[in-house]
Predict the 3D structure of the following.
Amino acid sequence: MTRFAFILHPIKVADIARKFGIARYLPHRLIEAACARMPARLISEISGIESPTGATTEGWFVGCTLTTRQFIEGNEERSVAKVIEAAKMAQDLGADIVGLGAFTAVVGDGGRRVADAVDIAVTTGNSYTVATAIEGTLKAAEVMEINPGEATAAVVGATGSIGRICAHLLADRVPRIILIGRSRDGLDELAEELADRDTEVEVSLSPEESIPQADLVVTVTSALDTVIEPEMLRPGAVVCDVARPRDVSVRVAHERDDVLVIEGGAVAIPGDVDFHFDFGFPPGTAYACMAETMILALEGRAEDFSLGKRLSIERVREIADLGVKHGFGLAGFRSFERAVDDETIKRIKRNAAAR
């Protein structure tokens, strides 16, 4: 059996407070400083994953004790050292491959420095995250009766490792795509990569001006604060939010009952999986980045897979096929940590048509 581990970290101080109640009453900076001094810790064991092929795997969640803000604003060398510490714990536990979650996958050249520091395989899970994000966006377009062949798509955070490949895959499906980011040079480079497609490609440094033009939005920035506000979205739009912390403001849930916002990467896990830890998903489901690590373990592929700032389209397609082989699939639509049912979609469509 090939075993895996997956590294988690608290997205915000509130996540720490769920584990340590006293944290609710202390200054955030004090809590973060204290947690940063804590060593990596075992969070839970994971059992019950079984592929239709008969392959099984088991693993562990390992905690890296830095928050998102600390990854973004803190010292990168400290961040890399903390992730390596967690990966070495995974190695000591007996994992053959370790997945990097959220911002642990961003630092250290997209996981390459972590891979160089340990004797087990490493993946960020980003390839399967891309595959499921695009699959989910297109399925959401279908239920909202949006024809991709007539739609404008926007990718927010287009120059990142996930955003870039999302742009490549969407450019094959829509007649117009808007690439949104913070660096004109990076956006122009990506536009050049897409120049041979039969798609109109635009670049933008202004989400406020460009997102209102889009029928389909995939957003995957590394921002600490929300990027998409209610006034930016056109009625009937589909937004796939892949980012953690989320890019879409919670105000959208309260003020825009005419758009469909879905969380990217919610995947159903085969077998009778027990994570022995509540990370906010329904039982039997996980993030796509976690699922990639499990898929590779089930396949016996203890090898570095999704690493670096440049993902491979071929690897995105390969992990998607392996996911199907081993019984993984989208777990239905979720929006702001709640399931989206048929009645909700019907109401969104009615409201969009009225506006």
